[in-house]
Amino acid sequence: MTTKRARLLPGNKEFDVHEHESVLDAALRAGLTLGYSCSNGSCGECRAILVEGELKRCSHYDYVFSEAEKNQGYVLLCSFTAQTNIVVEAATAQGVEDLPIQQIRTTVSKIDRVDERTIILHLKTPRSQSLRFFAGQHVTLNLSNGIMRNKSVASCPCNARFLQFHIHNAPGDEFADYVFNKLRAFDAITIEGPWGVFTLDDNSTRPIILLAYETGFAPFQSILEHAIALKLSQPIHLYWLVDNPGRHYLDNYIRSWVDALDNFQYTTLVAHEKLEDEGLTQERRIAALTEAGHQIIKDHPNLSGHDIYMCGPDSLTHAAVQLLLDRGLQEGHLLIDAVKRL
């Protein structure tokens, strides 16, 4: 396979473009946050200036450039591949404030029941409208019966037409009950977002610690896949706490990262050793998260040079947070995902 090297201005980020692969697809695969929407040559949002090198058209496009754009050397990154090493200038999203709030009608492509109380819901956007988001953000899922729920996107922004969400079947949860018992493939779900500032600081070179609780692993899956796409070099240590044994529903998938990556560690934690004990009290969950904090300190005695990402409401995480801050973690290096249902 022939591969060319691309450099993106401003910022001088470099990435490989494979033969027959569009420059846009290559940039997204590399974790870059270029502007785009349709990916099929209609909207023009992925237009960029070719500064150096030669491109070859790889797909049809309908977008009509203005005379000024033609004179400036604009091209559509979704419709061209690199024929030589290239340099392009294009706008990128630097932060969550740069992304528009989007409303997209998606369809259910798969309902993956990974264990008796967890579903991974797969949604597909139309070809004309991918979801632009940062790894770690959440969206609002609007079911056809009017039930709504905020859920973290579990999939990587590098493949934003195919979205994943982790659904926990909690007693009395009408959203989960509908997903588990009534939702079917090809049903429509409207998503709105993205929301939130729980995102990876990919400019930091500090070692990363992630503490996930139950299906709160979802944003961490997105963050980890994004970090892999960016080829981050710093150590990453994931701690995944669940209520009962056997509930690490993506355990094999995560362990494949341990085998493939030199700088990745994975520690499983369990709040209660009895498999049949469902519905832990809030006090027990607070204690379990605090115990997880002690495990982090045992593994990383000096936290002053780390970034830590956690999930969970303040009512559960406050004790663990204070414990980590007391051991040198800087408050500005701590990010907590406390997604509210609505």
Describe this structure in words.
- The structure is a single chain.
- By secondary structure, this protein is α/β, with parallel strands linked by helices.
- It has 3 domains: 3-89, Ubiquitin-like (UB roll), CATH 3.10.20; 97-195, Translation factors (Elongation Factor Tu (Ef-tu), domain 3), CATH 2.40.30; 208-337, Nucleotide-binding domain of ferredoxin-NADP reductase (FNR) module (Rossmann fold, 3-Layer(aba) Sandwich), CATH 3.40.50.80.
- Helix content is 22%, strand content 31%.
- The strands form 4 sheets. It has a 6-stranded antiparallel β-sheet, with helices on one face. Strands 2-1-7-3-5 form a 5-stranded mixed β-sheet. Strands 16-15-14-17-18 form a 5-stranded parallel β-sheet, with helices on both faces.
How many individual domains?
3
Helix content: 10-25%
- End-to-end distance, in Å? 47 Å
| CATH homology group of the largest domain | Nucleotide-binding domain of ferredoxin-NADP reductase (FNR) module
In round numbers, the mean pLDDT is 91
Return the structural class.
alpha/beta
What is the N-to-C succession of helices and strands? EEHEEHEEEEEEEEHEEHEHEHEHE
Q: In angstroms, what is the radius of gyration?
A: 21 Å
Largest sheet: 6 strands, antiparallel
Instruction: List the total number of helices.
Output: 7
Q: How many β-strand runs?
A: 18
